[in-house]
Amino acid sequence: xxxxxxxxxxxxxxxxxxxxxxxAPVPPEPSPRRRGRPAALSPYAFLVxxxxxxxxxxxxxxxxxxxxxxxxxxxxxxxxxxxRGLGNYTALFADPxxxxxxxxxxxxxxxxxxxxxxxxxxxxxxxxxxxxxxxxFRTALLLPYATSVAAASLIFAQLFGHDxxxxxxxxxxxxxxxxDWQNGTVASQIAVxxxxxxxWTGYNALIYLAGLQTIPAxxxxxxxxxxxxxxxQFLHVTLPxxxxxxxxxxxxxxxxxxxxxxxxxxxxxxxxxxxxxxxxTLGLYMYEQGWGFFHLGRAxxxxxxxxxxxxxxxxxxxxxxxxxxxxxxxx
Amino acid sequence: MSxxxxxxxxxxxxxxxxxxxxxLAACGSGxxxxxxxxAGGDVTLTVDLFxxxxxxxxxxxxxxxxxxxxxxxxxxxxxxxxxxxxxxQTRLAGGGGLADVxxxxxxxxxxxxxxxxxxxxxxxxYGAGALKGEFAPAKWSAATTKDGKVxxxxxxxxxxxxxxxxxxxxxxxxxxxxxxxxxxxxxWDGYLELGRQYKAKAPAGSAWLDSVGSLNAVMVGQAxxxxxxxxxxxxxxxxxxxxxxxxxxVKAAGEGLSAKLxxxxxxxxxxxxxxxxxxxxCPAWMLGYIKGQAGDAGKGKxxxxxxxxxxxxxxxxxxxxxxxxxxxKEAYELIKWLTAPEQQTKVFRGQGNFPSATTSIxxxxxAKDPYFSDAPIGRIFGDAAEQAPVQVLGVHDKDIxxxxxxxxxxxxxxxxxxxxxxxxxxxxxxxALG
Lengths: 331, 434
What we know:
Pfam family, one (chain B): SBP_bac_8
Mean pLDDT of chain A: 87
Protein name (chain B): Sugar-binding protein
Oligomer: heterodimer
Signal peptide (chain B): 1-25
Organism (chain B): Streptomyces roseus
CATH class of the largest domain in chain B: Alpha Beta
CATH topology of chain A: MetI-like fold
Shape of chain B: globular
Largest sheet of chain A: 2 strands, antiparallel
CATH architecture of the largest domain in chain B: 3-Layer(aba) Sandwich
Strand content of chain A: under 5%
Keywords (chain B): Signal
């Protein structure tokens, strides 16, 4: 990612080595051990709590999941592991439900991420101007993000209700037939995506807003003097200035979309993601295998496939971004 | 940024944070995990159930606490058994967060006796063997392992009948007398025929039955052999009972006789008061649920008649004590008392859950329920319980039923071709059973 390079360039010198000017009366034999040791160790001591937690709750589950994914492991009989090798993985590729879930994850991901980031960008651009009640709007933006997934999903599930839902009532007012937001494939995916869009647009808008604050106001002033409209300013000042932030938000949103779980689970409270699995995401399918059917080995295999998928997607994202960065640097 | 503006800004932000905290707190409901609460010698027994066992409603906990000073009972309850079972299995695997008493549905009891015998207390060690004579033999043997461990005491059984809205029947010009109806729908064909007549003259927005899923469930409950044969082999694909039920359900869906509601979902609950359906196949334990959902406004509008196509059983439960329970002995005393004939009779009179204790069945033979237009529920359900076949129970009964139900919903709500839906069901069952 591009932001890594400037950071590396400005990184301070090693804390253990003071600047030469301060150690003016140079002793003939500086004993770096005696003076260096506590100072050299302390940064590691500060890191220990984090890495202990990370090892316990990050690395260990990751490796243990990989281990379990090679066995037939059942929740109801946890003691009996039966070696399957890569059997759980090969079974997955022949499993129609897995491919459905993968496809759903992708379509819901696009349906939620694209509108979400576009709207966030627009909102951030508007909020960056001097508006009356700016703080109110900025705080209001963050409110959906601060709401719990469960609360939001349950409310949306009611709004999208077939017979008594507000949305179908409103559609009825304008003469549109009630939409089956639960059982229709596209309709249900739009409904689930709307929860994601609602929750995350404000969050992304605030991140964009933070990015926008780093763009010097002179650029906008200059553009205005040149007679550029707000739309032109957005295209030629805001967008280029925000590029690293946009890369960051797309990476984070991609990861979030790949792991999408709470919204589809709570939309109808069904682990199968609808009666035809029409909005079952990979995360939900993993949960269904693990905690609906109690096949922990298969759930672990899905978890690892998801992990690799995310790694590939994020890698691709970073690669694209870096290529652009190099191209521009080369100009 | 000028300094005076910071204060209100911070206040707004703090407000936002506080609001979030409140929302989060509102969502995280306690799961009632811990049970060791022994202040001053008092014992708090935790009871974790699903659906409606009716103990709290019938005042049995209060009575037990009165009879046993120093014992306090705390009940947690999950409406949907599928959710309950998932959470129970997770806690059993982890060995923590288990209540002193856990409810077990009859569709899961084979899984408990065959796969998880070590996770529940063998009640023989507290002398449960002496209770054997009190229970219907099939009820008792289903919770007994091959080597004789008794893992649960039977609460209720689920003899089936047909509940119907006599006010809606009248509005559509159908007979409302339960004996006449029982004769008219002696067969399932007769039931569907009445459904067609109802549909022709029904009040707006009212369907003949709630969902084809419930039709399927009661019909499967009328057979001895369903998903497994007596040797434990998986036979659902070729089971005549499963096929008959499937065909009738598909027919009902195709003719638009169903309100297409998902049982146990919020829209289904709402439909009890809105009158979206006129009949609901009802095992005895459903009576309490109907009362709860339809409320006082439904009193006298409902009635109960004999089930079309013969007697059957759907559901019924057990109470068990996990090995990880904090107060095993006290928990056993409690479930022994709760499942004793006198208490089973009380629950039936209050909630309609039909007793599995034989003396209790005799005591309630003349019971009538004013809520259900004074229907002789003691006789209707008593006859059904007596005539219902003793079912072959399999390890994955509930899992298979759930997947078939899903496929039927596809036919009902999306118009999926029945053949495609059946193929989907087979795929889903294979996937679920692994």
